[in-house]
Amino acid sequence: MDRHENKMDATQLTELDAILATEGELVPSSGFLAAVMERVEGEARMPAPIPFPWKRAVPGFVLTAGVFGWSAVELVRLGVPAMKAHPMAMPNISFAMTLPLDQAGWVALALGISLASWLLARRFVGRSSLL
Questions:
Q1: Residues 6+ apart with CB under 8 A from 131
Q2: CA separation for the pair 126, 121 (Å, rounded)
Q3: Deepest of 12, 77, 78, 122, by most Cβ within 10 A of its Cβ?
Q4: CA atoms lying within 13 Å on the CB side of residue 88
C-alpha cells in the first residue's frame, strides 16, 4: 500500500511541477519592496519594550507568600485543638425535611434535561454560539 501511495504522490508531484512550469515568473508589485523596507525600518525605530519591574514585584511576592504561610501555620495551630475539643456529630435531619430536597432534585433534573434539549436544538439549527 505504501508503494502505491508513493507512486501516487510522485505522479501528483510531476503534475504539479508541470503546472508550475507553465506559470510565469512571479514578480512583486511595484511598491512591495519599499513598503516592506519602510515597515522594517519603522520596527527598528520603535523603542525597546519596558522590562518587568522584578525588583519592585519580588517584595510583594515574598509578602504574599509570607501571609499565606503564616495563615496556614495559624490555622493548624488553632484549628487542630478546636477540632479535638468539638468532635464532629452527624446532623439530625428529620424525614419531613428531606422531602423538599427530593423534590428539588427532580426539578434540577428536569431543568438540566430542558437545557440539554434546547442546546441540542440550537446546534441543529446552527446557532451554537450562545453557550
A1: 119
A2: 9
A3: 122
A4: 3
